[in-house]
Write the structure tokens for this entry.
Amino acid sequence: MDSAALVKIWKAICSGGTVALCAWAAAYAQARIGTAGAGTIAEKPEAAGMIIALEALPELLVILGFAIGFFIITMI
Amino acid sequence: MILPMSKIEIIGRRSDYSKVISTLHSLGCVEIEDIKKEIVVGDPTIRPLEPDEESKISKQKIEEILMKVNSILSFVVKKEKTPKPNEEKVSELWELRNEDLIRRIEKLIGRIDEQTRELTQKLTSLESELSLLKNFEVVVSKVEPLVRHFSGVKGYETVALLVEKKHRVVIDILYDEIKKITGDKFEIATAEVDDKTVAALIFYPKEFSAPVHNLLWEENVSEIKLPKDFAEMPFEEAVKRIRSRLKELPEKISKLRRELDEQSKEWVDDLISAKHVLENRLQEFQVFDMVGQTEFAFVIIGWTPKKYLDLIQRSLIKQFNNKVIVNELELSEEEREHAPICMENPAWAKAYEMVLRMWSLPRYGTFDPSPMMAFFYSLFFGMILGDVGYGLILLLASFLIIRKFREKPGIQALGFMFLSASIMVILFGFLYGEFFGNLGLELHLVRHFSFKIGSEEIRLPIERDKPEFILPLLIMCLSIGVTQIILGQILGIIIGLKERSLKHILEKIGMILLFASIAFFALSKTLPNIFGPVSFLALIASVALIAYGGGVIGVVHIFSTMGKIFSYLRIMALGLAGVILAIAANKIGSTLGNIWIGIAIATLFHLINLVVHSFSSTIHSLRLNLIEWFDQFYKPGGKPFKPFKKIGG
Amino acid sequence: MSILDYSYTNARIRSLKSQLLTPDFLKGLAACDSVEEIINLLSETNYGNDINQAVFLTSGVRGIENGLRNHLVNHVNFLKSRVLSKKALFLSMPILQRWDVHNIKVILRSQHAGRPVSEMEESFVPLGQLNLTALHELARALDTKELINMLHTLGISYFEPLRKYLNDYLADRNLQKYETELDRFYFENAIRQISSRYFKSLDRFDQNKMFVKKMLELEIDIVNILTAIRTGPIFLEEEEAEKLFIKGGRTVNKEFFMELFREENIEGIIKKLSKTVFGPKMKKALEDVSATGFVSPIQRSFEELLIEKAYRLFKEYPLSIAPVIAYIWSKYNEVVNLRIVIRCKEADIPPDKIIKSFILVH
């Protein structure tokens, strides 16, 4: 296998790994916010807006991971 | 903007008090301040208002009658689901004087009470019967099959036992003993109740009742005791009865409930209106101890937006012919800080006011950032979403929302929020050359072109998914971030000037200087040589200013502010993710072969992308405002303005 | 221990906790002019529905008390069915069952004294396995034997000690001894229950089990002290007294218990206890014998200790079972405070005295 192909393979693995790791981290964070948030909304429906916002914030982790994965493939 | 507030003092004759308070109540624009906070200790001239006998009696009467209204209502409507009162009925009741009101509602209650008492009592007794029998459900269901074995034989009697499993041998002993007593005329059947207990049924001629019971007691086994109301009948029948009651009770209960609901339709409206009026009347009594009195006069102290001052003065003077005085009081420094916050904004900035309410209101004496938030939110939203096609859809949707929800200002405000954002989305869509992702480019609706500024060649559109545009986009996001943060510093300086806090101002100036010096360093190659040392000096000066103005925390703040600027990179990252998903939607659509299926699938994907993406764009745009930007200047902790007004009015 | 197990439960408990009545609200109630005003203020709170309905069916103070109790019961049922996770419920059951023991004791005592059913009803706190209707049924039992049969029929395991020691009780009519056996059974059972490996993750080293155990240990101490107060060398031989000691407490061991037992009056006991956590609270309870009338100040001071203990655990371990226990206690306490307000208002006791007899823990 020539080195160019090898590089390509590693790029794919790395960028995939990045996205996967970030997605896992975001999922972990959202799970914790979600359980606590569901509890809070059940008692205080007016807090729903705040909870939805909090629930959505960790997704940035995936998006950043996705951007980095994209850079790995296109820029290096 | 935050409305300027006035602290007012209303003075009048004590005899006019209840009319004045009624007028203020219906005006609904004064927040009454507790007089106890205002009274100087030891000041004999002013004390909390003491209600006269008449109002005491009326209040007590109203309390009693409200209690009755509430207690009847509690059977037919849930507290949180109480429907709105009928306006006609309310205004009719509102006109009545207290005595007439009380008499009228008492009559109403008397009639309803008669109708409902029997029904509700029956209902609760059935409910408690059900709850009692449910306790016995386990035992009953276990002995039921045993009972079927031998029921209905005359002259025989059944006794049911519970035996712990560990003492199971007792059953064998009983067998032998009962055999001795009755001869062969008996039967024993057993069944498991749970993992610790066994139930046994003994069936024997009645004449042996006494010796058998004695035996059981001596052997230390428990007899099954059914509820007392069933104790008189034979065991088999009791079990059957309990089973059938358990079956029929829920039905009976729901039937009664329906009946009650049906009945309540006649009067529930009247009661809710009565409740509404009574609660409002009570409110007028409840401010009693917040009002002050001197020998002949009463004193109300309160807050009102400056612009309503005139209205209050005019309506009080008109009604009482100058017998009531409304004075505007001078505000002390401390009072100014704690004045309640009443905000007023044009429709396009209303939504941000709501966001602030959820977050934390600004302090009085600072300013309302809602209009600026409207601009930045739309800008960020547009930069992230940036797509002509998506923008048009959003624009249409927000128009529909604004039209449809004229009655609900809260939701309408959201419509306005999206309206301005969608315009930005369209503008940035042109800059990025995006129409449903790369569909515009693919269909040649968008053309590439370039022009030169000096030696730099500028190529448009900025295709966000192409590597060569990543650097320009990065720079664009960072510079937007720097701009907003510097604006934040300037706002901080303005607040500092208002509050006359020099340290605060110096810290903010230091921060701006710091940005300037960093900019000089970055551009040092293109600038004349002299800027090198100047930027170095500026850097030192800025750190010194920050350290002086903000102390150690100020210095720490330097790093956190730098970090905040990088946070603006999320604009690019989110945008990139959105574009790639949009392109993916087009790609999936184009590979499907059949053009119509392709379009359908692509549309579906675009819609999902649009919804998900606008949601996260909203959240992150707000976050950049609320966290990154607000940290630079925002002073939270304002107390909302709570005027004394009619409940639900 | 995984934090996740309790995060949902905890979030809900916290938001429920934020709905507890504030001290200012309670003070406002104490300052009300009439009972009707109190009811109207309460009807704007979570108590509203239950109190309004109860007041419609039974007028006067009795109605409000029914309403308060119904609310407490409904609320705990709501906790059991909707808020607590399986594990949280498993661990809080032993705490709730203490009220089963309390209720059974109430029935035993009135049977012992030959008092009628109606008198005992208001002392019931149906938070454990026995619900109110079941308690009413039990209260109709003619004698202890029938009570035991009924308990067994209902599947309540407390019939075991009652049956075992029934003959002794019938012989010497020593209720204190009988009750001690009931307590002993409850504590042994509760500790066995939480020590069982019902959930694999709740292993021996789980700190949540420890919290429940700590609460139980404190209660064992309290029961022992109460026994020492109620008995004395005049009534009982030393040998007999030793049998009344329940082991497992934290502060009161057997020797100490016997020392307390030998004291002839309550002052002596309090003096002996002064170096422990119990001393100051009991002393205070005796000093300002509050005008509440219907709860004994000593019992109330013990409840205060339990609540404070629960809150201490809550603050130290906010992501555990401790908030649940603390919440259950503070809800119970809130209802007791409200009962105090109602009773005192009826007896025309001035507001500042009412406020003084509140227990406010935060």
